[in-house]
C-alpha cells in the first residue's frame, strides 16, 4: 500500500466516525418519535454539538418550540426559533456565564404539561458556566486552567466543576421541575456516564464536595481561597449537596444517549472491513497518559507486523490525559501520536492517525495529526529532535512543521478521541 493510500484510508475511517455522530443523523429517529407535549416545548442545551443538535430539532420538529443553547465560538448554526449563543471553551468566559444564567431562567416557572428538551454534548462544562453563590468567573477560570494542566481525567475534573456550579450536577433539572425534562446526550466520555457528560446538568450526581477536595489534593492544586472555603463549607453541610440517585425531584427526568464513541468506532470498522482490512478494536474508553498509550499501541503494531498476514487497523477511543511540563503547543491526541511514532521507530508499513472528533485538540483549532514511516526521518532532516519536542509537549508544533496536522474546522459534534493505527505487513 502506498503512503498516500494509507493516509487516505485513515482519513476515511475518521470521516466515517464523524458521520455516525452528526446530530442531523443521530437525532433524526428520536425527533421523529417524540410526541409533542400538551404545553410548551422549551429547548435548552450546551456543548460543541449543541447548536447542530438544535438545528436538527428545528428542521424536523414541526410543532411550536422556543429555546436557547450555548456552544463554542465558531460552532454556531443558523436557527430561527432557538437562540444560539457562542462562548469560550475550554476556559469559560463572561458570555458563557450570561448564557448559563439565562438558561436557568428559561427552565423555571413551567408546568407539568411543559417539556424541557435538553441537548448536551462534550464541552458543556466550560460553556455552561454558572458559578455557585460566592464564587466568581475568575475563580472558575483559575481552577479550570489548573485542572487542564494537571493530568486529571475527565471524571475527576467534572467532579470539581459540579461542586463549584449553580447549574451542573443535576441542578438544572431541579430548577426545571415540575416540567418534564428530556435530555438527549452525545457522549464524549469513557463508559458514556451521563453524570460526566457536560458535568451532568440534568442527571443525579454520585460525587460529593469531599470528592472534589480530594481531586484537588491528589493533583496538588491550591485553588483560590473562595473555592476552598466553598468546598469545605459543603463538606461541613453548610451547602446543599448535588441531587443524588433516587432524589424524587428528578422523577420526571429522562436521559437518552443519542451518539456514543463506540458507535463511531463501529462505523470506522465497517469501512475498514469493506476494504479488506482486519480490525482490532481496543475499546472506546481508554484513559491514562497519552504518551504511554501511544508507546503501547506502537508495540502492538510492531507485534502485528511481525506476524504478517493481512493489513490490519487498530482502533480505539476514550480520553487520555497529558501532564503538562513543557511550553510547547500540544494536545492529548498529538501527544499520543508523537509517542507512537517515536516508539514505532520508522518501521515500514506503520501509519497512525489520532484526532479529537470535535476538531479541537487541546486549545488549538487543530483536530490532531497523522504519522507515516518517514515521519521521524523528515523531522530530523529539518533539524528537529522528535523526543525533545515530545518532552516540550509540542505535538502541534511537530506535526505542523511536517505539514501533517489534521485540520477539520468545526465538526459540530463530539464523541471524544479517535485513534487508528494501520499496519501493512
Write the layout of secondary structure elements.
Blueprint: H1 3-20, H2 23-26, H3 28-33, E1 41-46, H4 50-60, E2 66-72, E3 82-87, H5 94-106, E4 115-121, H6 124-127, H7 137-150, H8 154-162, H9 171-176, E5 180-186, H10 209-218, H11 225-235, E6 253-259, H12 261-274, E7 278-281, H13 290-307, E8 312-318, H14 332-344, E9 350-356, E10 368-371, H15 375-381, H16 386-391, H17 395-402, E11 405-406, E12 417-423
Parallel strand pairs: 1-2, 1-4, 2-3, 4-5, 5-6, 7-8
Antiparallel strand pairs: 8-12, 9-10, 9-12, 10-11
Helix pairs in contact: 1-12, 8-10, 10-11, 13-14, 14-17
Descriptive account of the structure:
There is one protein chain. The chain has 425 residues and is α/β, with parallel strands linked by helices. It has two domains: 3-17 and 262-423, MOFRL domain (glycerate kinase, domain 1); 34-259, Rossmann fold (3-Layer(aba) Sandwich). Helix content is 40%, strand content 17%. The chain contains 17 helices and twelve strands. It has helices spanning 3-20, 23-26, 28-33, 50-60, 94-106, 124-127, 137-150, 154-162, 171-176, 209-218, 225-235, 261-274, 290-307, 332-344, 375-381, 386-391, 395-402, and strands at 41-46, 66-72, 82-87, 115-121, 180-186, 253-259, 278-281, 312-318, 350-356, 368-371, 405-406, 417-423. The strands form two sheets. It has a six-stranded parallel beta sheet with strand order 3-2-1-4-5-6, with helices on both faces. It has a six-stranded mixed beta sheet with strand order 7-8-12-9-10-11, sandwiched between helices. Helix 8 (154-162) packs across helix 10 (209-218), helix 10 packs across helix 11 and helix 14 crosses helix 17. The longest helix has 18 residues, at 3-20. The chain is globular. The model has no long low-confidence stretch (mean pLDDT 96).
Amino acid at each position: 500500500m502506498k503512503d498516500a493510500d494509507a493516509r487516505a484510508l485513515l482519513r476515511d475511517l475518521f470521516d466515517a466516525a464523524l458521520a455516525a455522530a452528526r446530530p442531523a443523523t443521530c437525532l433524526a429517529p428520536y425527533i421523529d418519535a417524540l410526541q409533542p407535549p400538551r404545553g410548551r416545548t422549551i429547548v435548552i442545551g450546551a456543548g460543541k454539538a449543541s447548536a447542530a443538535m438544535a438545528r436538527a430539532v428545528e428542521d424536523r420538529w414541526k410543532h411550536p418550540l422556543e429555546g436557547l443553547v450555548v456552544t463554542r465560538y465558531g460552532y454556531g448554526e443558523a436557527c430561527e426559533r432557538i437562540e444560539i449563543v457562542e462562548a469560550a471553551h475550554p476556559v469559560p468566559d463572561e458570555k458563557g456565564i450570561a448564557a448559563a444564567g439565562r438558561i436557568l431562567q428559561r427552565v423555571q416557572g413551567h408546568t407539568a404539561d411543559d417539556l424541557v428538551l435538553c441537548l448536551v454534548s462534550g464541552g458543556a462544562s466550560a460553556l455552561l458556566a454558572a458559578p455557585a453563590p460566592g464564587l466568581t468567573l475568575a475563580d472558575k477560570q483559575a481552577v479550570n486552567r489548573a485542572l487542564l494542566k494537571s493530568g486529571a481525567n475527565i471524571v475527576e475534573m467534572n467532579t470539581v466543576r459540579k461542586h463549584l456550579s449553580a447549574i451542573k450536577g443535576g441542578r438544572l433539572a431541579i430548577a426545571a421541575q415540575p416540567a418534564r425534562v428530556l435530555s438527549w446526550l452525545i457522549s464524549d466520555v469513557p463508559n458514556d456516564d451521563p453524570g460526566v457528560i457536560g458535568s451532568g446538568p440534568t442527571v443525579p450526581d454520585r460525587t460529593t464536595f469531599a470528592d472534589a477536595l480530594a481531586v484537588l489534593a491528589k493533583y496538588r492544586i491550591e485553588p483560590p481561597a473562595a473555592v476552598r472555603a466553598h468546598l469545605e463549607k459543603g463538606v461541613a453541610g453548610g451547602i446543599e449537596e448535588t441531587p443524588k440517585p433516587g432524589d424524587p425531584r428528578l422523577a420526571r427526568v429522562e436521559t437518552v444517549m443519542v451518539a456514543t464513541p463506540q458507535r463511531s468506532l463501529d462505523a470506522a470498522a465497517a469501512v475498514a472491513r469493506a476494504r479488506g482490512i482486519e480490525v482490532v478494536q481496543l475499546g472506546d474508553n481508554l484513559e491514562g497518559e497519552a504518551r504511554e498509550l501511544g508507546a503501547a499501541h506502537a508495540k502492538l503494531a510492531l507485534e502485528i507486523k511481525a506476524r504478517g498476514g493481512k493489513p490490519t487497523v487498530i482502533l480505539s477511543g476514550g480520553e487520555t490525559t497529558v501532564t503538562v511540563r513543557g511550553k510547547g503547543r500540544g494536545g492529548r491526541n498529538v501527544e499520543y501520536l508523537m509517542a507512537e511514532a517515536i516508539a514505532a521507530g520508522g518501521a515500514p508499513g506503520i501509519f497512525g492517525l489520532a484526532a479529537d472528533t470535535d476538531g479541537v485538540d487541546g486549545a488549538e483549532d487543530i483536530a490532531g495529526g497523522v504519522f507515516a514511516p518517514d515521519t521521524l526521518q523528515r523531522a530530523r532532516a529539518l533539524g528537529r529532535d522528535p523526543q525533545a519536542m515530545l518532552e516540550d509537549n509540542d505535538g502541534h508544533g511537530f506535526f505542523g512543521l511536517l505539514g501533517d496536522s489534521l485540520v477539520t474546522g468545526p465538526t459540530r459534534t463530539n464523541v471524544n478521541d479517535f485513534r487508528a493505527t494501520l499496519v501493512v505487513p
